[in-house]
Design goal:
510 residues; alpha+beta; 15 strands
Length: 510
């Protein structure tokens, strides 16, 4: 391990130290800050940012660890970086080569170069239970054209976590290589049967554990195979599997004249590219069908070309979904009752559970009697109006709580507005609107616009935030002006009292 640390690049060492800090890890000289206090007598822990420290300091700190569990933790970090480096090197070498192997490598590159890749595929693979596949530098591994596609189904378990309950893997010939029900390690709260197609009875005979599935998939990937999937990062999170050679069909296809973070749904891709509908409206998911569809899309991409964009499609949204407004980026300390101070009209609220990693905010749906009531309420909401990255109307709202404190949130319509100003819509489930990370708590629209509710188009979001801050500043100026008037009035009253007292004193002296 010492030699690996000494020869590691600084960015790797910085990440290791930061993770050690985050986990509160202690070597023989204590935590990172404890170590700095003895290592650097001049500055001590006052300069604790690892990226600002020289390599020698980082290496010296990491060498203070000797416990087996700590060394295994660091080894996983090294493996993840090694895998990514191998993929990056093969990407550079393969650019412009049109052999079948290089075409596949270009699809891997399209996935790696997508703006959302680093965010979506930065897994906590150092944590217990995660498996990191090894990618060797030998050309037969980095240039292997073997592919398998995976799709998973997840259910809601105790504690708000998701549990893996079914996995399907197919090869490039669409032969099923793995199709197993998985016994979740926690009690199931919601099977999401209408979405997953799975009920309690299906799991009665399940004997495979997550670790069993991990071993099975590792065998399929052992010779450098490429892993294919749609919104694949969600499947990998459920599998607790970190694999570097991936092709994500949500990343390699793009819509015409749309922002790059507008991701096509699997169903839309099947209709646009493959010429068939993946599933009927309201039908639950099918792992075999979804994995096969992802593989077919990659094969079609190789055959038809890598650069063609697909036409943008808006699907009809059910009437009951049109009767809702999505309220998101609500600070967690804002009670649900306060939302009635923001949104006018009669409606009920449906609060969604906060997802891991997004503890500062929560989301909720305002549900009206019909779509007209929802639209009227949206128009009456005071705020800075704009559009999300997909073209749906959204308002940034600043408001005052009953306590007098200020807060802000976003309110968004469920439907799109086309270039003629007419409203179009797209099929979504209410649960999908707020799920953020969850893949299987959605309907067949797996990923399209998923990032919108938590990551709007950055430029638009910045504009909205600037306008919001201007409003807040204006409010503060008004409050300050009012306070100055009050102070001025109090000064006058005090002056008058002083005059009265002075007069009384003189009279008494007389």
């Amino acid at each position: 391990m010492d030699s690996s640390i000494v020869n590691a690049e600084k960015e790797v060492l910085v990440e290791m130290v930061k993770l050690a800090q985050k986990r509160g890890m202690e070597g023989c000289k204590g935590t990172w800050k404890n170590f700095l206090n003895t290592y650097d007598r001049k500055f001590g822990s006052s300069l604790s940012d690892p990226s600002k420290r020289p390599v020698d300091a980082l290496v010296s700190f990491l060498k203070t660890f000797s416990k087996e569990e700590d060394l295994k933790f660091f080894a996983k970090i090294f493996q993840c970086h090694a895998n990514r480096k191998v993929v990056e090197e093969s990407k550079t070498k393969s650019h412009g080569n049109e052999s079948p192997e290089q075409l596949l490598q270009r699809l891997i590159s399209l996935t790696l170069e997508h703006p959302q890749y680093l965010l979506d595929y930065s897994f906590p693979s150092h944590e217990e239970g995660w498996v990191v596949t090894k990618i060797r530098r030998k050309s037969k591994f980095t240039r292997s054209n073997a592919m398998v596609a995976v799709d998973c189904e997840m259910v809601l378990c105790e504690g708000g976590t998701e549990g893996l309950v079914r996995v399907c893997v197919v090869d490039r010939n669409l032969q099923v290589k793995l199709n197993e029900f998985v016994k979740p390690d926690k009690a199931v709260v919601d099977y999401r049967t209408e979405i997953t197609g799975i009920c309690a009875k299906d799991l009665d005979e399940a004997t495979s554990s997550l670790s069993d599935i991990q071993r099975s998939i590792q065998k399929l990937l052992s010779h450098g195979a490429i892993l294919v999937g749609h919104s694949l990062h969600n499947d990998l999170k459920a599998l607790k599997l970190d694999h570097a050679r991936v092709i994500d069909t949500a990343f390699i296809f793009k819509y015409e004249n749309q922002p790059i973070n507008r991701r096509p749904s699997l169903n839309n891709l099947c209709k646009s590219i493959l010429g068939y509908e993946l599933r009927q409206k309201g039908a639950p998911h099918n792992c075999v069908d979804d994995a096969s569809a992802a593989m077919k899309l990659v094969l079609a991409k190789l055959e038809q070309g890598l650069d063609d964009a697909i036409p943008c499609v808006h699907e009809d949204l059910p009437a009951n979904e049109m009767a809702k407004l999505l309220l998101h980026k609500i600070p967690k300390d804002v009670p649900i009752e306060e939302l009635y101070r923001v949104v006018p009209g009669k409606f009920t609220t449906e609060v969604q559970p906060m997802k891991k990693g997004r503890g500062e905010y929560y989301s909720a749906l305002a549900i009206f009697r019909n779509s007209q009531k929802a639209s009227e309420a949206f128009e009456k909401i005071p705020g800075i109006q704009g559009k999300d990255s997909s073209g749906r109307s959204q308002k940034s709202v600043s408001f005052q709580l009953s306590t007098g404190a200020s807060a802000s949130l976003h309110v968004r319509k469920m439907a799109y507005a086309d270039s003629l100003g007419q409203v179009t819509s797209r099929k979504r489930s209410s649960q999908f609107e707020i799920s953020g990370d969850s893949k299987k708590s959605k309907t067949d629209e797996k990923t399209e616009d998923k990032e919108m509710e938590v990551k709007p188009n950055e430029c638009e979001d910045h504009k909205i935030e600037i306008e919001r801050l201007k409003e807040v500043l204006s409010q503060r100026d008004n409050e300050l002006s009012s306070l100055q008037k009050v102070i001025s009035q109090r000064d006058k009253e005090i002056s008058t009292l002083h005059t009265i007292i002075s007069n009384l004193t003189r009279k008494q002296g007389l």
